[in-house]
């Protein structure tokens, strides 16, 4: 399957934090969610994809082209949304857009107008007068108005009210109907992922935990709830993360078929939610791939 983004052996060190030889790809034609706890490295990875941060080692390819060499032509095809404000505060929405438009060879003023209207943004309002959610909407309108083949978005749903959040997710699902278009977005909200993501990339402490199809996680992971008597030293080691109370335990396994075989008759075996997979992995000193 074709990949629209390829990171190969990426390393980056910031003091005590490091991205450690990360290698993964983002599939063309799909929506991929990038998840991980605070400080896991999501924004750093996204900035690397946008050529805004350089890796110490390794290569970043977008559309099969090395980002460091083909930055301008790649960016022409990427719609980027970030939670940082890159606009000029003193300008109005329309004045700002007139500055941005010439940077994109496929800028479509009609589409831009459509989104500004749909997102209920007033073209004469100054950027500094926009609320956090309005700035995000403005950023989204720009990203969707220049025929981008790839949307890269850093927490695009943060700060959005639940109604617009849902509308945006529907809009992104529609956008992907064109099989040549791809979306990568980071989020802390697993409901976003449940609604629209096809693939999930999970990073923790600068390591890749997994890059998997969302549907296949249910075949891999299992949540076991049972009596503490089931736990001895060897059994404990099977769990990625374990939460124990006085009498019982809850633990996550990443080998469902073996786990079912062992625990089926003695404990409750469930399919974990994404949030549970994240919680137990982050809490439990998981082994990284
Ligand atoms: N320019 C920088 N200089 C020094 N350290 C940095 C810089 N940018 C990021 N870091 C560090 O890199 C680590 C990863 O940060 P990053 O912003 O990528 O995490 P994140 O997964 O996006 O977190 P969050 O969910 O909180 O937004 C953090 O420890 C952060 O302090």
UniProtKB/TrEMBL annotation:
Keyword Transport applies: yes
An example Gene Ontology molecular-function term: ATP binding
InterPro entries linked: AAA+_ATPase, ABC_transporter-like_ATP-bd, ABC_transporter-like_CS, ABC_Transporter_VariousFunc, P-loop_NTPase
Keyword terms, alphabetized: ATP-binding, Nucleotide-binding, Transport
Domain ABC transporter: 5-230
Protein name: Sodium ABC transporter ATP-binding protein
């Amino acid at each position: 399957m074709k990949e629209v983004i390829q990171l190969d052996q990426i390393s980056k060190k910031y003091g005590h934090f490091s991205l450690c030889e990360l290698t993964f790809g983002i599939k063309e034609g799909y929506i991929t969610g990038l998840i991980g706890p605070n400080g896991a490295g999501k924004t750093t990875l996204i900035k690397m994809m946008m050529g805004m941060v350089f890796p110490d080692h390794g290569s970043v390819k977008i559309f099969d082209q090395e980002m460091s060499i083909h930055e301008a032509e790649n960016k022409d095809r990427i719609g980027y949304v970030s939670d940082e404000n890159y606009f000029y505060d003193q300008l109005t929405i329309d004045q700002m857009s007139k500055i941005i438009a010439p940077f994109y060879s496929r800028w479509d003023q009609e589409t831009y107008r459509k989104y500004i209207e749909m997102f209920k943004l007033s073209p004469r309002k100054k950027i500094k007068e926009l609320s956090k959610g309005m700035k995000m909407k403005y950023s989204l309108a720009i990203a969707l108005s220049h025929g981008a083949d790839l949307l890269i978005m850093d927490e695009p749903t943060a700060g959005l009210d639940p109604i617009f959040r849902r509308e945006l997710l529907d809009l992104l699902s529609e956008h992907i109907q064109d099989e040549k278009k791809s979306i990568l977005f980071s989020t802390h909200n697993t409901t976003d992922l449940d609604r629209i993501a096809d693939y999930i990339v999970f990073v923790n402490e600068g390591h890749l935990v997994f890059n998997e199809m969302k549907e296949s996680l249910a075949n891999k992971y299992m949540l076991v709830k049972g009596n503490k008597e089931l736990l001895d030293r060897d059994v404990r080691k099977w769990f990625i993360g374990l939460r124990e109370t006085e009498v019982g335990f809850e633990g996550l396994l990443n080998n469902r078929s073996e786990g079912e075989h062992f625990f089926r008759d003695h404990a409750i075996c469930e399919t974990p939610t994404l949030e549970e997979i994240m919680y137990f992995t982050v809490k439990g000193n998981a082994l990284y791939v």
